[in-house]
Automatic annotation (TrEMBL):
GO terms for molecular function: holo-[acyl-carrier-protein] synthase activity. Keywords: Cytoplasm, Fatty acid biosynthesis, Fatty acid metabolism, Lipid biosynthesis, Lipid metabolism, Magnesium, Metal-binding, Transferase. The gene is acpS. InterPro entries: 4-PPantetheinyl_Trfase_dom, 4-PPantetheinyl_Trfase_dom_sf, ACPS, Ppantetheine-prot_Trfase_dom. It catalyses: apo-[ACP] + CoA = holo-[ACP] + adenosine 3',5'-bisphosphate + H(+). The keyword Cytoplasm applies. Transfers the 4'-phosphopantetheine moiety from coenzyme A to a Ser of acyl-carrier-protein. This is Holo-[acyl-carrier-protein] synthase. Belongs to the P-Pant transferase superfamily. AcpS family. The keyword Metal-binding applies. It is an enzyme of class 2 (transferase).
Amino acid sequence: MSIYGIGTDICDIRRIRETLARRGERFAEKVLGPHEMAVFRERKAKVEARGVAYLATRFSAKEAFSKAIGMGMRMPMTWRACEIVKAPSGKPEIRLHGELAAWFEAKGLRAHVTVTDETEYAAAFVVVETR
């Protein structure tokens, strides 16, 4: 195995909160896939700050992933085609859908992701390797 790409991103949670206040859930629906959207709503309903932090970590992870694959946010990379889900162990993992999943599989790639957040910032780091 060798490294195909590395990506990192930091996100200001206050900016995400302001965007949510301005655009409502439409912003979350643009960024989050179906599984992520359900988790976002559940967390936000319990403690709003937890929902916002969750959205920020996913935003940051998708930005980092797009950098690691060298594409940025252009097809087949889209916000909703890339989801950050939790493995049973709690470890975050990347789940891809549609054209992005097919492209990634055809290249024989594998991704590793980690996310973190504090009061004002969320950050993510992604390593993509060839099999």
